[in-house]
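From the shared-data thread, chain only:
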Amino acid sequence: QGFSGFGSAAVIMVGSMFVLGAAMVRTGAAEALGATLFRACAHSEILLQTAVLIVTTLCSTIINDTTVVLVFLPIVVAICKERNLSPSRYLLCVAYGSLLGGQWTLIGTRSNIIVSDYLSQQAGVGLGFFDFTPVAVMVFLAALGYFLLLGRRFLPKAGEVESAEDTLAREYLTEVLVTPQSAIVGRSLDQLAWSRRSDLTVVALIRGQQRIPAANWLKLLPGDILIMQGPVPTIGDLLKSSDFQLKEEVKMDHQTLRSVDLVTVEALLAPHSDYLGNTLGQMDFSREYGFTVMGISRHGKTIRERPMATPLQYGDSLLLLGHVARIERLERDPNLFLVGHRPFSGLGNRKAVLTLLLLLGVVVTAVTGVLNPAISMPLAAMLALLLRCIKVKDAYKVVDWQAVVTVAGMIPFGYALEKTGAAGALAQTIVGVMAGFGPLAVMAALLAFAVLLTQLIENAAVAIILAPVAFQIAKETGVDPKPFMVGLAICVSAAFCTPVAHESTILVMGPGRYRFRHYLQVGGVLALLTWLIVSLITPLVWPFGP
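Structure, as tokens:
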């Protein structure tokens, strides 16, 4: 019985959830859902905050909450840098949106799956895919209203971001080619939308053998080469743009750019590297390693020559693009030190649509009752692998095995609470103390304890500990356990008050320059609102009894 958790449907669903979420990231589906909207709303702080909250909440209903933060954190940081905004005004929206969205559906967060699985073990029927949604939507609307009217005033007005990843801060110099088919042919630089971005600098223009300083009146001709400087995400946007062709892109065919396993790699030149003194034009990374050089960075110094014609020096950083499977070979090159790498979402990837259709299939089959989510989720994860929306090797890497093992190990602990009588004894004590107050007061007291506990302990662990207690309290009170279980699942996701409450809140702390008080000031009211609304609304949606 102690190891029975590893055969639980909850564990299989949690693992499948990580794979499907990673497929959303690898194919660029998640980024496509939000990046365009964020840029359209970036002219207004309150509008961008609203867009970030809504998009991250909706994405988190079908993607693991932590994955949502990992996807949208660099996107929001890049847009803030592009528009000269303060990331601290938006990143907490990403964290809170991921937590609020996790409350909506069965697969929104693993604590929902755990509570449903326990109820299924005890009552024969678990919670439905959208059983949480009516109450969770009310919580979200209240949270959105509070945040826009009052909560946003407590956010810090910090300036530049202190990114956890140096890749967001380092700027690279690259060359882009104006193709004959480009829509920008005949336009001057001041008419070019790219030249107005604060995160991108047009350094010079190469026309034939002539180098021309960047001037607003210059009209672009086919074959012109623009030397541009910007951070990693911006260079990636240039590669995907139909306006330009990266000078080195001739080594990356169109099919390659649609791949789901591309990564950008930052590599520093070693002190005695054989590449020192060579130019990028003389180096053939594509033939030797399967990587294309996208740009060069020389911190603290200005590069006067063309990037492709610049002799390399010790300490130069190269931005490379290639397949993730080839990183190991690159790591063995003694001439380079790899600083880090990150996924590069494919160009116009049709597999993004396939991934979205698979997730839609999980939702539709759950709503119609055709398939139980315990079957449809692993089935969708397997189809994502077979359709190559994510590779098998990557699937093993993206699963948070610590979380899976924790859930599998803690599930028997919940059973132990029941079998030893500990949950029943605690339930009898609570019901005895609250005798005469009715089931609503008993449930409200339990949910208040859940909200407090989830600020200190990971929500999945809180769900495992309190699910048996909630079920036994419902039995002792003589009411339907469903409102207790739904309310508990939503409240254990209200980890808004402390940075250590959840991975989502920890991830944004450094880049957003947040302190403990910011979580308490903004999240304290959110947690209180969650408890109040869940306590009052849940019995109306799911009555205690006939």
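The CA atoms of residues 315 and 485 lie 57 Å apart.
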